[in-house]
Every structure is written in C-alpha cells, then in structure tokens.
Amino acid sequence: MCPVIEKYILNEYINTQTGKPVKIGTDIKKEINTKLRKIIRLHTRGISLAHADILWMKEELLKELSEG
Predict the structure, then answer these.
(1) Helix%, strand%, coil% for the chain, nearest 5
(2) What is the mean pLDDT of residues 11-35?
(3) Distance from first CA to last CA of the chain, Å, rounded?
(4) Sign of CA dihedral 57, 59, 6, 18
(5) Which residue intervals of the chain are DSSP H helices?
(6) Closest of 63, 16, 11, 61 to residue 40, by C-alpha
C-alpha cells in the first residue's frame, strides 16, 4: 500500500482472460478506504504496518497537487 495520485496511474487493469477492464464495486472501494485510513492512523501513532514511509509519500503528493 502506498499513496498515489492519478498522474502516476498509467493504465487500467485489464483482465487477461476477458480483455475487459476490471471494475471495483462501490462496497469494495468503501472497505478498502476504511482499512487504509485505519492503517494511516496507526502509522501516524508510530505503529507501522507498511514497508514504505507512507506519511512522507502522502505529504509529497499533496505538495505536488497544490503546486499544480
């Protein structure tokens, strides 16, 4: 898991068997967001479950977005 902004997403994920883009349902999106927010809160408190420095990455991406 790591923060990302749209600029760094090059392609949609394509199912190799059907050749169609993989869509994620709203319920799954909510579940993923809930779990990721919890991981970020834990990371902020010093409990790191991610291998990357996600807080630094988040701040850098927010700076990039604010700069235009």
Answers:
(1) 55, 5, 45
(2) 92
(3) 25
(4) positive
(5) 26-44, 54-67
(6) 61
